[in-house]
Structures
1.
Amino acid sequence: MRPTSLDDYVGQSHLVAKGGVIRRMLESGRVSSFILWGPPGVGKTTLAKIIAHQLEVPFYTLSAVTSGVQDVRDVIEQAKKKTLFSSERSPILFIDEIHRFSKSQQDSLLGAVEEGTVTLIGATTENPSFEVIRPLLSRCQVYTLEELGKDDLRTLLHKAITEDVELRKKHIEIREDTLLLRYSGGDARKLFNILELVVDATPGDDVVVTDELVKQCLSQTPAAYDKGGEMHYDIISAFIKSIRGSDPDAAIYWLARMIDGGEDPVFIARRLVISASEDIGLANPNALLLANAAFDAVAKIGWPEGRIPLAEATVYLATSPKSNSSYMAINNALAEAKNSGNLPVPLHLRNAPTKLMKELGYHEGYKYAHDYPGNFVHQQYLPNALSGSMFWTPQNNPAEDKMRSRMERLWNRKYPEK
């Protein structure tokens, strides 16, 4: 059922529809290296194969789970031989689960990608910002794929029933699809597996798919939907929302579900660090310290003992007072930075290491805070165009109430209240 052209590809219209970046690349015949980031079963591998098929270039595939540095070097050598005496486009090297590549494995790709020996297409379910080294990331665009919507899944169901060599021999009627779509979790591979399971469980050539039939089949084989991307994303979402909602019992339950399901402990620890900054923040700055300590502890001691510092951090974060004022402040400041562009730094805040800079007024009038009582003096620090702007809104908790009081006293201005 894997399509071979963009016209047959289902989903990801923001990338492949008319005007989409990947369609434009294919139409131009020039494809640069990129990484596809998205949940399982949404078409990452399929998209890479379509690109290679339409450009008619050699296509090499490596799995980060089974390949080592030598495998990467071997493929690069083959690619060099292909292009040495040819004016054809560079071969495509597709690396599935590139987030599992070690730093040395990713380093071995840099030269080939930089020189154009290969066009790299990576696929990952993890955030590339965390899992891909910066030198490689700087050589690649990152395109985000979304889980398939209900209409996409229904389209795939129809295609499977009418086009699959085996399924089209039967008379299959989809009378109800609520559970079929829900258990698929936006994953096409899972959708096809469940459909196949239901059809195989029904004797004869007449198959009527109902919610009850799907439920019966999956209750007998929970692994068909219990160990895929759906659980990975749904449970981590429930975990973080339980911490944010100050429910330690729910949070520790979801932690147990992830541990029991074989989730990567580093993934859990990383999300705890993010939650400590995003959801607890200035209301209890120690939360970030403890979450980071748990991250380090897990890396040092591994399983099964690593569950203990993870549990400690989870309960501590869930029971801490909450504030997202820092999270909102940086978002507000980023929005302003994008809106107002590259505003100049006021002259008095600039360094003046050369004579010319001093003559131009750099650093002139700067007031060194430690020379004044209380280590504070009134002075403008924002660009002139933004003078008086406020991005941080302190929230109502003891720690930020204290911060608010001090800032209002120093700057003689009222901070907005949430």
2.
Amino acid sequence: MKRIAFIAFALTAVVCCSKAPVVKVTASFTTNKDVYQVGEELIIENTSTVENNILAFCKWEYGSEEGKNVFYGLDIEGISFDAPGLYKVELTAYAEQGAGQDTYSRQIMVIDENDKPWAYFECPALARVGEEVLFEDKSVDNIGGISVWNWDIGGVVSPYQSPLMVFDAPVTGMVVTLTVTDSFGASDSFTRTIDITN
């Protein structure tokens, strides 16, 4: 009888002292793209996971540091921004009964469709055969920065930002066109003519 009582006590002690499984919360979400236009709705999918528990609720914070918005819910819709800039979207995911939480955030770039690069360059209107001619890029882009320069200098193509050319024959009214493209794919072109004389 004593032996049975001892075994029962030992089993009870093992059951009572076993550790609860560790709860691990991993907050995460995806967006359908990285760059949005002003006023365009972000499509966000909550991809948070919880091990050994369930996802109870989520806190979403988004906007700029000056004007932060807060929303509570597993999923969020209707986020858009009315001015170009870099915005932060932050998600804090919570397990049931305060068993754990985790935070994840990412930056969202918002651009104005009218905010494309402005192509422009300077060069002499008149140059001589055999002398160096600098085609100096003066293009600007407010968001993203210019990443591609495509020159057509009288039929000669150059990818350099400010090419230096030497001409070996006179040309009247040679057409020079610069097309610039920013890191978001927006582009603009500028054209002018130059005369090459002896």
3.
Amino acid sequence: MNIRLFTLPNMLTLGNLIAGVMAVIVTLTEHDYKMALLLVVIAALFDFFDGMVARLLNQQSPLGVQLDSLADDVTFGVVPAVVMFDIYAHSSSYYALDATLMHYLGYVTLIIAAFSVLRLAKFNIDTTQATEFCGLPTPANALMLLSLAMLEQQGNVVLYQEHILVISIATALLLISPIRMFALKFKGFGWRGNELRYGFILVSLLLIIFLTTYSILAIIVLYIVVSTLRWLFMLREATTDEGAKR
């Protein structure tokens, strides 16, 4: 079997991986969550363009799929877990609970990395996720958590250890949830069929303009809320149709 390692799409994927590793380093050595967030944004751009370039150059391959998942696991799974663990270590307990207990509970934040692996593995074999996602995409989760960490470091929000544990568990569960979340994948650029996508992009631009520092967090929370409401509406429609057939 002739396996080409050094293709342009693969190099872009490795760029994603390297940016993720750098984010881990700046988190553990400098506790610089703003830089970690910037590196994850750069990694997300690499992640976006590697697939696009692979399709344009007709260089899609099983190797590329495996590389993409491995790189995504580091950048969008390990990085947010490390950031949440790090910010937890520098926070205090709201209820002043036993320090030893709270120290060991901090490792619960690593559930983000574990469930990100499950999310990515499921995506690779789930044929129903071609046009939409099942569960929160790992890049969105990573950007949300790093944005939250940056805001906390800048003094814009206050996070206690109990908050960090709840957020870590909740977001990890969102990763593997059955919620169908819409994807910003356009089959055509007409309005019909893309109403939700264009509307979301427009609102996101407004949030960037008016909320600036809070915009990333706000956009992803909005994405989760809209996707959840859409999913619940779809379930209701399906239940109604099934009842009507009976």
4.
Amino acid sequence: MAIYTISGTITHVSPIVTITTRSGEPLSKRTVVITQRRFNPTSGEEYRPNHIPIEATKTFCQVIDNFPAGTPVRVTFALNGREWADQRTGEIRYFVSLLLTSIERDETAAAHVEKAQTQAVVSQQPNGAYTAGHATPADDGLPF
């Protein structure tokens, strides 16, 4: 299981849903959407925000009530993958979920956004490729 931390703004919180697990135990869960603002590395203009749905389970369902939409947060989540086999057809499918492990207010989020806008520096590499000073693999400008 991999653990990651991101910062962004809460843009949506779903209602709490209770499901029954395979063992018959009830499990409460809800989804919180964290939106990261993204900027064009050459112009600094904002484009295509990154909306990341993260699942909150058990006691985190109530903790999320302390973070209404519009709150800048820093969240830590576990990246989980699982396999599922359809008993009727035998088809195997794979699913990925992001499971909330911690959440806190991020008062410096606005400062990070302004810093990203001002650090949009593009440089040409010896091999002819262009790179942005603050671009990351997740911010490669592709729509997918």
